[in-house]
Structure of CRE-ACBP-7 protein:
Amino acid sequence: METSLEDFKQIRARFVQRKVLKYEFELFTKFEGHTRNIWGFHQQAIIGDINVPKLNYMEIEEGERSWMWRWIHGNEKWHAWNKCRGLTKEEASKKFIEEVQKLKSEIHQLLIEWKIEISNDPKGSELNNNDALFMD
């Protein structure tokens, strides 16, 4: 599980590092949405069944400009972990490893699909030089 966790962190770091670039934030949000289940399996493998109540993510905390980002992260992460309820830590760990390996093999194709969705280009788009950061 340690190796898969490091692999996942490396893949995610590439998106996090690039999210400040023009048009890259959309790729980051696509990645985050696509990998919520992986996060849920990780939490289940480490902690077990979800142990936090579902919060009212519509409330805005001091310093926040919008409830939307908090809702996206908090609500969807809560549901991803809650879907794993009942899995043993061993089962969740195995699923986590399988999902990270699947992500590693699919990330190149996912990037292409996400770029097409973002650009609304029905013909597809070429990967640019910056996309080499995502390839191993």
